[in-house]
Write a structure and sequence with these properties.
This protein is α+β, with helices and mostly antiparallel strands and 165 residues long. The chain contains 5 helices and 8 strands; from the N terminus they run H-H-E-H-E-H-E-E-E-E-E-E-H. It has an 8-stranded mixed sheet with strand order 2-1-3-4-5-6-7-8.
Length: 165
């Protein structure tokens, strides 16, 4: 009987410890919006529950959007350029992506699957900014698989109008 009681208590304590450890990780992110901004990243905060809310209802906030326009200007001049884009979801999770221009090609290290794009590193021929979206075209992943388009970021259209090339 004592063994059964000890077993039940052990199981209950295990569940409590697992639940508490998961909660702590969710409420204490190891990287914040403020830190990303201070590190010079372009930051997108998705405030919607899903991608449809973010796009359709504009539930997002962007900080330092000018960095993507500076990146494009440098690339259009044939100069090497880099930008880090950190995307924070409403639940506190985040991903940092890196976009580079080598002087000939665009290299996109995508760690965010929220834009329905594959994670991984991609080499692309074209970069476009329009209607609140930054996108790459004619891309290949590391295995050589061709992708027509990759979304780099989605921002408020009004923010795009406030920035210039």
């Amino acid at each position: 009987m004592k063994i059964k009681l000890l077993l039940v208590v052990s199981i209950v304590l295990s569940f409590v410890l697992v639940a508490c450890s998961g909660e702590e990780k969710k409420t204490k992110p190891d990287y914040t919006v403020e830190e990303a901004v201070n590190d010079g990243h372009l930051v997108v905060q998705n405030l919607g529950e899903n991608l449809d809310e973010v796009i359709r209802d504009g539930k997002m906030e962007t900080k330092q959007l000018n960095k993507i326009f500076e990146f494009k200007k440098m690339a259009d001049q044939g100069k090497e350029a880099n930008v880090k884009i950190t995307i924070f979801n409403k639940d506190g999770t985040y991903a940092t992506n890196k976009l580079s221009f080598t002087g000939k090609k665009y290299v996109f290290e995508n760690n965010y699957a929220g834009y329905q794009s594959s994670k991984g590193t991609f080499t692309c021929d074209y970069f476009n900014l329009m209607r609140g979206t930054a996108e790459l075209q004619m891309c290949k992943n590391n295995e050589g698989k061709q992708l027509k388009r990759m979304t780099v970021l989605i921002s408020e259209m009004s923010q795009f109008h406030n920035c210039s090339f």
